Amino acid sequence: MTTIHPSSSDLQSKRERFIPRGVSNGNQNIALKATGATVTDIDGNEWIDFAGAIGTLNVGHSHPKVTEAVKQQAEKFLHPGFNVMMYEGYIELAEKLCRITPGDFDKQALLLNSGAEAVENAVKIARRYTKRQAVVSFTRGFHGRTNMTMSMTSKVKPYKFGFGPFAPEVYQAPYPYTYHRPEGMTEEAYVDQVIEDFRDFFVTTVAPETVACVVMEPVQGEGGFVIPPKKFVQAVHEFCKEHGIVFVADEIQTGFGRTGTLFAIEQFDVIPDLITVSKSLAAGLPLSGVVGKTEIMSAAAPGELGGTYAGNPVACAAALAVIDIIKAENLNQKSEMIGQKIEAKLRELAEQHEFASEIRRLGSMVAVEIVEDRLNKAPDKEKTNSIIKYANENGLLLLSAGIKGNVIRFLAPLVITEKELDKGLNILEKAFADVSH
């Protein structure tokens, strides 16, 4: 029996009528099925996925081991509620997360639903443990869309504009952006200056003895895939240790192989007190977690942490499969190989197009900055949007990022085949050529 789907135009008009315009859509087509790094729409068109549901699909769409684990769990039960009656999946996943995250100290893990919820709970836990109130995040950081995580997020439009008042006692510290350092200043001198500015921040803006936690993305995601120098990350971590501040690594977009190691923070030789995880943890199902030192995690009393759907067993089953897949299929190593190939293509395109400026990469977390002029480095949001638009109209799911909206970012599934990757990069090449005319 053939399933008859509503037409794309019918669904698109329903979307306009029944879904708020505040929910953005980078691509106006309607997905029917997806496997690996290819999505097929209801009209039979194929799309190479360089977006990965904003970094959620490191093991790809519909990985057979994930779908099998989900089916098996769904046949047993969907959700008794961990706060009502415990189940094996939550406990097994908590143990696994404690074992695979950095640090050989005793750890515990709390499971939740979304990245924002994980960050919010990390803040709650840090406040409970330290008995302090202030929270420090960073310029250009993104941590979510709840009131607390909006407060921690840097970009005003579209994330914060008109949604205040925001949570009090949240402060944003300086974070290095070496591409935009002052002209004539060496990178080393610039990093030293930002470290000095960071320390001064705790004199001019907030006293360290009032700060519960510093929450840092090891690589800024929405901020434009900005990679901080190792020296800066280590200086922040040392400052936290010096002042009894909980250091939280927000690995929601960087985790599970995206940067070529299981967690990005490993590449900075820093062991966080707490780490937040989500996105690629459960291959597209809603799941997140806070993992960290037992003495910190256990500060909250029974009933103070949790949530109705937190740690859903079907999502836990998917996550356990994801962690096995990453190891079995060597996805950390494959991430580096994918990143190298994307970077090589971007360098080739940069030789042809003046608007393609700095290329940044850690593993397969790759970005290119689009500018009007390489000398003045003026951001070109219009050209960036044109490239994204061409890609999305011609078979490539592609995303932008950055405070000025002029960064193209790459979050292809780590299971992408050579054929899929080549096809996607060919479309990207045509997109660059198209906006040059």
TrEMBL record:
SUPFAM superfamilies: PLP-dependent transferases
Domain of life: Bacteria
Keyword Transferase attached: yes
Cofactor(s), names only, from the UniProt record: pyridoxal 5'-phosphate
GO biological process: gamma-aminobutyric acid metabolic process
Catalytic activity: (S)-3-amino-2-methylpropanoate + 2-oxoglutarate = 2-methyl-3-oxopropanoate + L-glutamate; 4-aminobutanoate + 2-oxoglutarate = succinate semialdehyde + L-glutamate
UniProt keyword annotation of Protease present: no
Pathway assigned in UniProt: Amino-acid degradation; 4-aminobutanoate degradation
Molecular function via GO: (S)-3-amino-2-methylpropionate transaminase activity; 4-aminobutyrate:2-oxoglutarate transaminase activity; identical protein binding; pyridoxal phosphate binding
Pfam families: Aminotran_3 (PF00202)
Keywords (A to Z) from UniProt: Aminotransferase, Pyridoxal phosphate, Transferase
Comp. bias regions, Polar residues: 1-11
Enzyme Commission code: 2.6.1.19, 2.6.1.22
Sequence segments annotated as region (Disordered): 1-21
Family the entry assigns: Belongs to the class-III pyridoxal-phosphate-dependent aminotransferase family.
NCBIfam families: GABAtrnsam, PRK06918.1
Protein's name in the database: (S)-3-amino-2-methylpropionate transaminase
Source species of the chain: Lentibacillus populi
Gene it is expressed from: gabT
